[in-house]
Amino acid sequence: MLNYLNESRLPPIHNKLPIIGVLAVLVILAIRPLTPATSQTVGTLQPGFGQAIVVLNGAESAGATSSEVSKLVALLNKALELNREALKLNATDEAETRAALLGQVDQILTTVENRAIELTVAASQRSYNTRVLTYLGGAIAAVLGTITYAFAVSFYQKYRIKRTFQMRVIRK
Amino acid sequence: MRLASSQNRRTLIVVFITLLIICEMVAYVATTPRPREQFFQLYILGANHMAADYYPNNDTNIHLGEPVTWYLGVTDNMGTVQLVSIRVKIGNQTVKPPDDTQALESPAPIVTEFMRFIQNNETWETPFVWSISDAVSSGNSTRILTLQIHNETYQIQDCSASNGHNFRLIFELWTWQADTNAFEFGWTAGGEHRVAWLQVWFNMTRSRLA
């Protein structure tokens, strides 16, 4: 059997393998994010609702005001009510009523999406204008401040000169 | 006003640049929305709109068919419009409640759910009128068969309690997640997942079945 001279000095790798394995598992468990419970509501909620909220959130990000958004939210809540009523109905006996209600839901969702898109365009334009005007106002304020400073310095200098010439020499 | 000297002009330029930086910083702060904490509030109030009087005559032992009125409320502080769902579950003493740390829902059966779009800073409150419309007692066990909520009857699967003690209604807040196109228990804000749920205990003993 072949023995190396410094064999006893070599680190015992095989002893560390289980520790490395345990550490790797712990690291994986620590890194693994919490996976919250989710539930698909395909049977109870139309996919249009999900799309509508995405478009509505886009309008809010663009700067739509709460009063503008509230009208669309009211429409969406009305659509939710209609959807709930439609799902209560029996699919076979009251198919026509059910289809009519679901048709209304679709119509409301389409209206909301269209209005939300219009709102996004208007709100983003308004936000852009507000931003430009605010920065422009900042620049104008800086110019006015500089002019005021220049006048103040000028008046101060004149005042100092005037005071200098008004000085009297008093013999002590 | 004398601005002829080059030193004066340099001073004015320095003043202008300083003021410009200050004013534009103010403009930036004014036009940039500040980050804020995002959260929901979920609450339940008694019949008199207070955190009291949850049971008729302040008796936790509910009669069969006796209407109980509560008020459920959710406040959206997420900064955007949210689609929320309050899921109503019924359980007994042994059923697991939702897990706050793991963000896991309760395994108790769902009775019904209420969905609503809520605006930022808006509170949605809805009355929750319920009663036990049918229940049976066999031996030491009481089993709730049907529950009536807002004049709608819901069949209850497998919900019994020893001597009719310690039933509970669990209310879980679920929110719509656009990326997964599904409702999720709780919400994610600032890289953290949070949950909100409530439970109210009640009894339905044999003496109240008649």
Folded structure, characterized:
The complex is a heterodimer of chains A (172) and B (210). Chain A is mainly alpha-helical and 172 residues long. Chain A has a domain at 48-127. Chain A has four helices and one strand, in the order H-E-H-H-H. Chain A has helices at 13-31, 47-62, 66-88, 95-165; one strand spanning 38-39. In chain A, helix 2 packs antiparallel against helix 3 (66-88), helix 2 (47-62) packs parallel to helix 4 and helix 3 (66-88) packs antiparallel against helix 4 (95-165). The longest helix of chain A is centred in the last third of the chain and has 71 residues, at 95-165. The radius of gyration of chain A is 37 Å and the shape is elongated. The N and C termini of chain A lie far apart (117 Å). In chain A, 17% of the residues are buried. Chain B has 210 residues and is mainly β. In chain B, the strands form three sheets. In chain B, strands 1, 2, 5, 6, 7 and 8 form a six-stranded antiparallel β-sheet that branches. In chain B, strands 3, 4, 9, 10 and 13 form a five-stranded antiparallel β-sheet that branches. In chain B, strands 11-12 form a two-stranded antiparallel sheet. Chain B folds into two domains: 1-32; 39-208, Immunoglobulins (Immunoglobulin-like, Sandwich). Chain B has one helix and 13 strands. In chain B, a hairpin with a 4-residue loop joins strand 9 (167-177) and strand 10.
Question: What percentage of residues of chain B falls in helices of 4 or more residues?
Answer: 10-25%
Count of domains of chain B: 2
Taken in chain order, the helices and strands of chain A follow as: HEHHH
In quaternary terms, these chains amount to heterodimer
Number of helices of chain B: 1
Query: What does the average pLDDT of chain B come to?
Result: 91
Radius of gyration of chain A: 37 Å
User: Distance between termini of chain B?
Assistant: 100 Å
The outline of chain B comes out as elongated
